[in-house]
Amino acid sequence: IWKNIRMISQLLKFSFHSSVAIKKRSKVPGVMITQFVEEIPAGKSHPDFSRKPIALTIQEGKLAVFKAIITGSPTPTVTWARNNGDVSDPERYVVSYDPVLGEHQLQMANVGVDQADTYKCYANNEYGRAIVTVTLNVIEAQLYLFSEQREKATADLKRTLRTRAEQKKERKDGEVDEKFWELLLSADKKDYERICAEYGVTDFRWMLKKLNEKKKEIEEQQSQYIEHLSNLRHIEIKMPGCAEFEFEMDLKDPNAKIFLLKDGVMVPFTTDTDEKHSLHQVGRKFIFSVHGLNAEDAGLYQVDIEGVNVFSTDFKIPAVDFLVKIQEVKAVEREDAAFECVLSAPLPKISWLGKNVALEQGEKYDISVSEDMLIHRLVVKDCMQVDKGIYAAVAGMKSCNAWLIVEDPNQRGKKGARKTTQAGGGGEDLIRIAAEQQEKLQKEREERMEQLKQIQAEKTAANEEEKPAEEGTAVPEPPKPKAKPKPKPKPETKTDSEGVHFTSGLSDVHAIIGQSAEMVCKLSSEKCDGIWYKDGKEVTTDELKIVKDGAVHKLTVSNCTEDDSGKYRFEADGRKTEAMLVVEDPPRMNQDDLATFSEPVIIKLGQNATFKMDFVGREPMKVQWYNEGEEMLEDNHIRIEKSDSHSHLLLVKCQRKDSGEIKLKLKNEFGTIEALSRLIVLDKPTNPMGPVEVLEASASCVDFKWRPPKDDGGSPIKNYYIERNQIGRNTWTKIGNIPGEPHYKDTDVDHGRRYCYRIRAVTAESTSDVFETDDIQAGTKAYPGPPSTPKVVSAFKNCITLAWSPPTNTGGTNIVGYNMEKRKRGSNIWGQVNPPDEPIKGKQYDVKDVIEGMEYEFRVSAINFSGAGEPSTPSEFVIARDPKMRPNFTNRKMKSFMVVRAENSARVNINFEASPMPTIIWLKDGMPVSKRVTVSNTDGMSQLLIPSAERSDSGIYTIIVKNIVGQETFSVEIRVTDDPKPPGPVELEENVPGTLTVSWQPSPDEKRDNHLHYMVMKRDSIKRTWHTVADRLFNNNFTAVNIMPGREYNFRVYAKNDIGLSEPSESLTWGVFSLNLAPSKPCNFDSAPIFTVPLKTHTTPEKYECYMSCAVRSDPIPHVTWYRNNVSLNTDTNYYITNTCGVCSMLILRVGAKDNGEYKVVAENSLGRAECSAQLTILGMLSEYV
């Protein structure tokens, strides 16, 4: 009563705010939200649960707590209630709020059985209300079911399950059980179809769309607590009486609460593996186990993190037993051992254990199952002593085990050759038992189908009898005599021992639309006529053909349509018989189209394949395409077009793996039809396979065979192309094509030599890649003798060079190489130095795989066509270290002077070589360097680094490299300076006529830089250009001469150091005055040519260049001609001649003997002619004459 009063008051309270009631959807499943206003103001929100309470299953007397986190603005009011009771008792119910965690709690201390109920949590504010329900289950202490109660509970459970199975029907969109989605969210794609069939979902497009939406929602919820979730493995029985499921997960909060639920009810679990439900965590892997399995453990298991589902798996325990258990197997070493068993019901997979460890398919174990899924087989390959022990097969709740005994009678621990035989296995007896069981199961299925059909027929007949007879069409029937029901229902037929009766009644007929159907019955008298009825109406239409042939009465329906379906009745002399005509419209295909479709489609690699089929049948039609039994869904590679009358499959850019059986499956309510075709994608074959089996290897013949390619690329193997290589040579000899048998006999061989073969498979389409055999020797082996003892040529820390002499006994064949081995002092193990497949060709080898300071000895063995012979005697021990060497600087271009700008880093690298490693000391001006200087030493180099240089770091730095052999030193001067500051003001003073004294104030850097000096530049009013008149002045004045009166002069003074120039200090202008000069007369500068600078005699070494020049003055400009021994050179390209502003030049790039002689220059113009000459002497020629 109190609960109802409180709920009514809440409804009245919020009815004043608004008459609107809008249903909202929460992100948390199971929360119902009602919004009271159409629009919520900004910053406000209706109540919602960010974390809802979790269902509890708890033992009587424990503490039960429901927790909820609620959001909303303004802050909602939270209340609790229960369906069948009151929560107002403060001693039994405590409502609290934790402001730190933001949790609303309902606590029940010492919970009792009467408190088990469904509880509700309400959250209300002025904008809406949120409600969530949660279940509390209380386990009564010391409650046991008696045997009768348990049997009754089991019977009730089976009856309930049976009822649910009978009532299960195909669900409509939006009416799917929530369990269906929970299973799909954690299932693999290959299981989608099975789950949909189990829950009656047929619209796969709608299912996939809805599933993607739910995946997004659950991922958003999981992202609040989970960083990563992967490797979901569903529950399965791993060991007898134990089932496990596992997944990998990274939690954002390691302290987040993990809940295990079974069929929606919380299940307690611990980390103790002896308990019923346990959790074992290894790193990021979570493994849940269920021990002590029984039938009640089947159900839906779920794992929640803080109320958010992360994984769901459905555990079904198959009702299966072992008809034939595995038997003890005795096997010989290197033999395979097989265990086989037969099940009572088909099962696609069972668990195999070896010494209590789960076994998986792989190189060691081969696990297989027969097509009828009754015979299961485990093969232990290549049995060894470690494989013996107990092996077990686990199927559902049943298990069986047997011993594997591995015998080793004569080997005495030695590893024998691999055997191809197999021990164990049931053979034909198991196949016979499995076939009998399969026949039995098939018979049971047919009986069940027959029972279902009879039940369906009874329901249909009952429904028809309940329908009221239509007026004017039904014929009155005589009353039915009471009779006992017969065990098998048959078409209802009235018979009587007196008068006319039916000797054969009507039978139900199933016809396909468009075909003919015939209903036949037979009377006991040929003289009696009868009347045919359809659905209670007499048959009068001409479309139905009625025939009487003596006592046989026939009703023929030509070209059946859906309207022809119904109940047909034949009445004669007060007797009647009834039967149903069912006109079906199953999927059908045209036989010509089917024949065309069945032809294989052959394409090349990378091409597109197209399949198309027309069909008819009633809608809706389910169209599915399969490749090798696996359904194909649309993606970038697969295009599927579906319509009411045809379907089109396009496979884009087919690969070899796409080859296989292509199946089109059509299904509607009337049946299923399939069309089969085959896709063959042509490609080059794979490589031929080994191992090579040598049939004969004699002195005159090598006969061997190999295995054909695993995949012939879609075309049969026509030939094998073979090449041969003789070991020791680099060439391959072409043998050519041989017929398609993988066998070859080579008779062109030399005794003792080894051969290698390359084999390619050839088809009409292409040629495979190469398969290379191992070395095969023709005849017996004759190994060479030992070479001479290796001698050490040189030894360094990373390389030791050795040399040896070939053996005197070569074994009758050529030496093709050597193998070298090394051994450390104190070790008994020899290790090969050169790669095994790369023998040493010469008689000297550099061993670089050595460790500095270690002591080694070496030996060498020779290799001929038979193989490697005996090794030589070991060499003397040698230490891997460099020879002693006095320190020596390797860089001959080291700088002894370095200028560094202030605040920049200074770096000096010194490369050296020395052995052993020397001691390195750096000094500055004869003293150890300061801590500001960083010194880095490596093998062969030393570096001095000043990170941020200052002027005080200037000085002479000396490196001393010293070891036990000697020492070496080198010095470098580092000058740290900066751009100089300009000098002070410049003053000019004339003490002596014609001279000027230039003086200036010193630069502020003069005291800090002893390399600072000055440069003076001058400019006058005539030339108007600056030119240097003095440089490297270390004082503060300079006397300029040749000061001409009447001209203006300016001076600039620069400060200079090792970095560069400062800004100039400029003087005032000197000599501003005017002169009275007489008027000038025009001058005539025309003159005949005259050489102001004549040619000079040159003496030049042979093959050097020679440069000759002279100067001529003339106006107008003269024409200049060069002569050697009176022969003009102006057109000779071996001489480079120029005439620039009166300077005549000639360049000989490479002086030779022909260039010796007298050279003359002639200059002429309209006023005259001038010439000058000189002698060129070649030094090389003089030495030859001497």
Structure description:
The protein folds into ten domains: 2-139, Immunoglobulin-like, CATH 2.60.40; 171-315, Immunoglobulins (Immunoglobulin-like); 322-410 and 419-439, Sandwich (Immunoglobulin-like), CATH 2.60.40; 518-583, Immunoglobulins (Immunoglobulin-like), CATH 2.60.40; 591-679, Immunoglobulins (Immunoglobulin-like, Sandwich); 689-777, Immunoglobulins (Immunoglobulin-like); 791-879, Immunoglobulin-like (Sandwich), CATH 2.60.40; 885-977, Immunoglobulin-like, CATH 2.60.40; and more. It has 1186 residues and is mostly beta strands. The longest helix has 39 residues, at 428-466. The model is unreliable at 1-19, 142-174, 467-497 and 1182-1186 (pLDDT under 50). The radius of gyration is 55 Å and the shape is elongated. Strands 1, 2, 4, 6, 9 and 10 form a six-stranded mixed β-sheet that branches. Strands 19, 21, 24, 25 and 28 form a five-stranded mixed β-sheet that branches. It is built from eight helices and 86 strands.
